[in-house]
Amino acid sequence: MRPNKATHQQTKIHNRDLVLKTIFDHDTVSRAEVARLTKLTRATVSEIVAHLISEGLVEEVGYGSSIGGKSPILLSLAANSRYLIGLNLAQDKFIGAVVNLRGEIKDLVEFPIHNLDGEQALQLVYQILDQLITKGYHPLIGIGIGTPGLVNTREGVVVNAVNLDWQNLPLAGLLEAHYNLPVSILNDSQATAIGEYVYGNDHQTDRNLIVVNVKHGIGAGILINGRLFQGDGGGAGEIGHVVVREDGKLCRCGKYGCLETIASAHAVVLRYDEMIQANPAIYSSLKDTQIDLAAIETAFQQGDPLAKQVIYEAGAALGASIANLIGVLNIKKIVLTGDMARFGEPWRQFVQTAMMQSSFSRLAENTKLEIGALDFRACILGASACMLLDDYSLLFHLPTE
Amino acid sequence: MRPNKATHQQTKIHNRDLVLKTIFDHDTVSRAEVARLTKLTRATVSEIVAHLISEGLVEEVGYGSSIGGKSPILLSLAANSRYLIGLNLAQDKFIGAVVNLRGEIKDLVEFPIHNLDGEQALQLVYQILDQLITKGYHPLIGIGIGTPGLVNTREGVVVNAVNLDWQNLPLAGLLEAHYNLPVSILNDSQATAIGEYVYGNDHQTDRNLIVVNVKHGIGAGILINGRLFQGDGGGAGEIGHVVVREDGKLCRCGKYGCLETIASAHAVVLRYDEMIQANPAIYSSLKDTQIDLAAIETAFQQGDPLAKQVIYEAGAALGASIANLIGVLNIKKIVLTGDMARFGEPWRQFVQTAMMQSSFSRLAENTKLEIGALDFRACILGASACMLLDDYSLLFHLPTE
Q1: What is the mean pLDDT of each run of 10 residues along chain B (401 residues)?
Q2: For B316, which of A99, A161, B251, B354 could close a Cys bridge (C-beta 3.0–4.6 Å)?
């Protein structure tokens, strides 16, 4: 049941958004085609399109082919008629970008971070936003931020982000007051999921999607019927801190044996180092090197058996956890993203094999596991797009300068 | 985005359903209160209520109290104005019932089953429905069935129910043709979840709910925003066949170490028997008894340490799996149902303790784990109610005789 009565005004907005979404979903489309797809009358479509053109959101871009009769005028979204800012507050660097309505990154800045306290992290966010705003893209209609940790999106509060030393930080409110723009805060894996869903490899045809983001930490983002599902407390997809090995290693969350302690990029670096220390006689191409993920990737590609072993173990643990995702949700498309995706198809296969072994076969057989298309950009694009996903009103009530 | 244009007719139906839902949700309610809750005008509410009364769905049942002025007439759902049939095809018996619009069971039949083949199981379904239909409750508006196994609800097909020997059985189509009534088929755990949601302990205030049904097998039903979530293939909630112990026992699904092999009622009986056989010297009150779940329950209540151990192990494995549910969905209310619920609060505590140990603390702390209110009736009520949950049109287009 929808919660409220339907009014004439709601119907008008609904139909406007329906037309706009149809134009969003096509490179170019004619009014007649829009009418056919939306089941609205030609007259209603023409009226709405006229409004969208007067708002500068839609353009006439040429003529389509015709089967006899007049060639139809083609409409297209005016990609650069509005801009959004997206931020990805990653473990090792903060990245910010100006994005247009087609999800094209127009400008990008990044700052490496190291041991920031909470106040420094917040100041860096202001600094990035200041820089991006002065780039002169106009009109800017909103700011979207993907951050690690637990987020209350509705209230715009970062409940707990250990790495950034943020507790109950009303980030959206602070930024809205400062910049006079709507601000949306999301968990970074949830933002990444929206990014892959909207701008990745044709996922929107499926309506349901799981994105598993394997970086320093591990989180998932879940889209159900085209909308991000955040759970009752914003923590849906927090699979990184489920205990998968009772006798496992201490996790930064205080428990032992969380998925993150085995399958994350951080765990892989620690484990590789540990194996070298414990077995000085064993062959490793990285014996005298500073070990980081890039170095392990090189070793892995050169056939280093120790690297292969570590990546295998990490992938297998992740696959077993993904079996749980399949059992719980039976969503048939699962996308892997994050730093660990650099280990590519071999890693995906380790994950897939373990996933199949631990899953109810009938469900797993119909599940497609693939690597994401957008790397770090998914989080930026998702954070900026999320404000528009359910509600196009931002496009119409432009901020005053 | 809603998928289709909004029309005047849709608005009318939407508003009618909104009024009806409001009356459903109250024992009694006045027209003025309905108008206040729905934000519809008094005139619209009066018009809709007149229609509902003429359809026999709503009754005027007396006068409410008034703060000065005329006492308002109270409206109530006419609980016995329509009937539904619900079936629960359980492991050891088939149960069928006639249910009214308030979820009250008016009549109930049950048949113990033992080693039925697929055709016999189907014939028994016909037999139960024949019996219930001849009880004379009128009008009957639909049949809902909860069955173990994987179900394609949209097509009304039981894809795979091992116990019943059904493969790709178009059960809804067969029954609709035979009885000329709409038929809905659901996985039994999904049906149970709907039953608990609609008729259990005030769960609807939460909109999201997980019900974990622990019987011969184990399955969950997930309600998201008040609607059953079935996943892409109908298998959402199939947590019983996720491998939780790689060196575990053979499961009926062909894998080893599925959750069902440790935490189900069936597993508990097998494990208890096995422990007695393996340790003849150990104390057990059931040494010379036929071991079934009822016997273990008695022993458990008498303090039999072996029974306690077995129930503890089963509960702990279930709790660890529920930690995964919390990590994936962060739904704050989880209800336990099924045969294992006979072990009551001690079992719930075993589950809860393991759940807390394996969960991300911040999410688990806000999760409430409780035992269901409706026992076997939840499946029957949910199966029958599911047809109405999203769409009240069944109430208005009555079957012709």
Answers
A1: 61 91 92 94 95 95 82 94 95 94 95 91 96 95 95 94 89 96 96 94 83 96 95 95 93 92 96 86 72 94 93 97 97 96 97 96 93 93 88 74 46
A2: B354
Burial class of A64 by CB neighbour count within 10 A (0 to 12, 13 to 18, 19+):
middle
Give yes or no for B245 touching A (CB within 8 A).
no
On whether any CB of chain B is under 8 Å from the CB of A328, the answer is yes
Cβ–Cβ under 8 Å, residues A268 and A217: no
Q: How many CB pairs under 8 A join A and B?
A: 188
Q: How far apart are CA A298 and CA A316, in angstroms?
A: 21
Q: Is B38 on the interface with A (CB under 8 A)?
A: yes
User: How is residue A256 written in tokens?
Assistant: 């032992």
- Cβ contact B232–A328 (<8 Å): no
Query: Comparing A97 with B386, which gets the higher pLDDT?
Result: A97
State pTM to two decimals. 0.91
What is the C-alpha to C-alpha distance for residues B74 and B61, in angstroms, rounded to an integer? 6
Min distance A177 CA to chain B CA atoms (Å): 29
Dist. CA A12–CA B269, nearest whole Å:
61
What is the per-residue pLDDT across A2-43, written as a single tens digit (0 to 9) for each? 445 567 788 888 899 999 999 998 999 999 999 999 999 999
3-state secondary structure of A59: strand
Burial class for B22, CB neighbours closer than 10 Å (0-12, 13-18, 19+): buried
Tokens of B86: 């619900």
| Partner-chain contact B329 A231, CB within 8 Å | yes
Query: What 3-state DSSP class applies to B265?
Result: helix
Prior bond of A148 cis (ω within 30°) = no
